[in-house]
Design a protein that fits this description.
This protein is α/β, with parallel strands linked by helices. It has 19 helices and 22 strands. Helix 13 runs parallel beside helix 15 (about 405-410).
């Protein structure tokens, strides 16, 4: 007897105001396991790169009257997708219940008998002013906050917002979606008694590198905005708290403020680089050009890991190799001492750092993550361990790694066994193309593999985007692909890449 089909759950998730770092932990959790994501125009595209392979991505964007789908069609779509998938995420900019029509979507799901969950997000009404140095409340300035939508203030639905009450409301007023009617709104407020000299600000593309803030007064802000060429999406802040931006504007002081930087590393590796750049004020755009997959011969990999203890040396070529090796190792052994007395070599500081997480120090490591440099370090340290002749070496690496280590160790009469821990494949290019269309100031390549897969995905650099290369091997790969290198990082560490970018931006 077949089981009756049941609907999946729809999660109405707030994507936050634009900065991916402001998305909630719960929201990101659901995004990573979603079978389907229905996203709107103000959802940061880069967070979609966290979705699992094969996730059904549906653009339901709406902005300024340009609707990919009407609200009624979106409601129908959510019900349909719930019957097709177990986990459906409806990703909405800001918070789904703050002028996001999330309540309407939840009602449609309830009516159709579809289970749903609300995951609140950080609203641009709060985050936008905060990133511009404007606290919407302040004990000595404003103890009340009023939020309204400009969509209901254009005369079509006059009863929705009482302009006289809004004008007389104390404290701070934040108007969302009011840019089309900015001048009319300011005039109406003054007619209803709002003091013309009341400080006002307009914040465009809140919390992103494209954020721009124009300040003035209720009587002058429309002219200031027109002169600056600011349009939607933007929010309007009215109240004495606006003047505090002069003192509290913090983000503009960060060294990489206003910079959009693309990170092409795989999801598994992008974290540290993205974190450091973000902490320095950059808007980090995750655009993985490759994905890490299991090796073609899983049995051979498992056998190599089990027998690793019988080798004199284990050479690790990458942090990914370390991770995959020890995932397999601890599925068989419970004690690190089962690794035996093998000496450890690492291709550069990043790989050594990953080994330290497992309590292992390295015996040989070059300062630069280049295979030739590792061989030079073996030669330089030969007297310390008696050379490599007749030593058994296990080389842990990716499927398509350069053969330098194998060939050179073999020349030195070492007996080299290979442990292919993972393979690298191109990432999905459809989302990447859309991300690149939004432009960027810098794009980073940390390995020749990221370059190869960028080219394989048939991607093109955004206009005026500068290219940052980690080391000469990556630089050569870029040049061979016809891509000019603007900044080359001398040392093969993430920290050094960030320092190089910061120095270049100061000039």
């Amino acid at each position: 007897m077949s089981k009756e089909k049941t609907a999946g759950c729809v999660y109405l998730v707030g994507a936050g105001p634009g900065d991916p770092g402001l998305m909630t932990v719960r929201g990101m959790e659901l995004l990573k396991r979603a079978d389907c994501v229905v996203y709107d125009a103000l959802s940061p595209l880069q967070v979609l790169s966290c979705c699992k392979e094969g996730c059904d991505l549906v653009d339901a964007g709406k902005r300024g009257g340009n609707h990919t789908l009407s609200q009624e069609k979106i409601n129908e779509l959510l019900v349909k997708k719930a019957w097709e998938h177990r986990c459906v995420v409806r990703l909405k900019g800001g918070d789904p219940f703050v002028f996001g029509r999330g309540g309407e979507e939840a009602q449609a799901l309830q009516k159709a008998g579809i289970p749903f969950e609300i995951v609140p997000g950080v609203s641009s009404a709060l985050a936008g002013p905060a990133y511009a140095g404007i606290p919407v409340t302040h004990r000595s300035v404003a103890s009340q906050l009023t939020l309204v939508t400009g969509h209901e203030m254009d005369g079509k639905n006059a009863a929705a917002v009482q302009m006289d009450a809004l004008a007389s409301a104390p404290g701070t007023k934040v108007i969302l979606m009011g840019m089309e009617n900015l001048r009319e709104l300011m005039n109406q407020l003054q007619q209803e008694g709002q003091a013309p000299e009341t400080p006002a600000a307009v914040i465009q593309w809140a919390t992103t590198a494209r954020q721009r803030c124009v300040r003035g007064t209720v009587s002058t802000i429309a002219d200031a905005v027109a002169q600056a060429g600011i349009g939607s999406p933007a929010l309007i802040v009215i109240g004495d708290v606006v003047d505090l931006a002069e003192e509290l504007s913090w983000r503009d002081r960060l060294p990489l403020a206003g910079r959009r930087i693309i990170v092409t590393r795989s999801r598994e590796q992008a974290g540290r680089l993205s974190q450091l750049l973000s902490e320095l004020g950059a808007e980090v755009i995750s655009l993985p050009t490759l994905r890490i997959v299991p090796p073609a011969d899983k049995r051979a990999f498992a056998e190599a890991v089990v027998n690793a203890r019988h080798h004199d040396w284990i050479v690790f070529s990458s942090p990914n190799g370390v991770q995959k090796f020890f995932d397999a190792f601890f599925s068989v052994y419970e004690d690190l001492r089962e690794l035996g007395g093998s000496r450890i070599a690492a291709l550069g500081p990043g790989t050594a750092a990953e080994l330290r997480k497992h309590g292992l120090m390295v015996d040989v490591m070059p300062k630069e993550a280049i295979a030739e440099k590792l061989i030079e370090e073996f030669d330089r340290r030969e007297d310390d361990f008696g050379g490599l002749e007749h030593c058994s070496v296990l080389w842990v690496h990716a499927q398509q790694a350069r053969r330098i280590i194998f060939d050179e160790l073999t020349k030195r009469k070492a007996i080299v066994d290979e442990c292919i821990a993972y393979d690298v494949k191109p990432a999905d290019s459809s989302l990447a193309t859309r991300i690149l269309e939004n432009g960027a100031d810098l794009i980073t390549f940390t390995s020749s593999s990221t370059v190869r897969h960028f080219v394989a995905m048939n991607l093109h650099l955004p206009e005026n985007c500068r290219v940052v290369s980690m080391g000469p091997v990556t630089g050569r790969a870029l040049q061979e692909a016809g891509i000019r290198v603007d900044l080359e990082v001398p040392l093969h560490t993430i920290e050094n890449m960030v320092e190089t970018i910061c120095r270049a931006e100061k000039k």
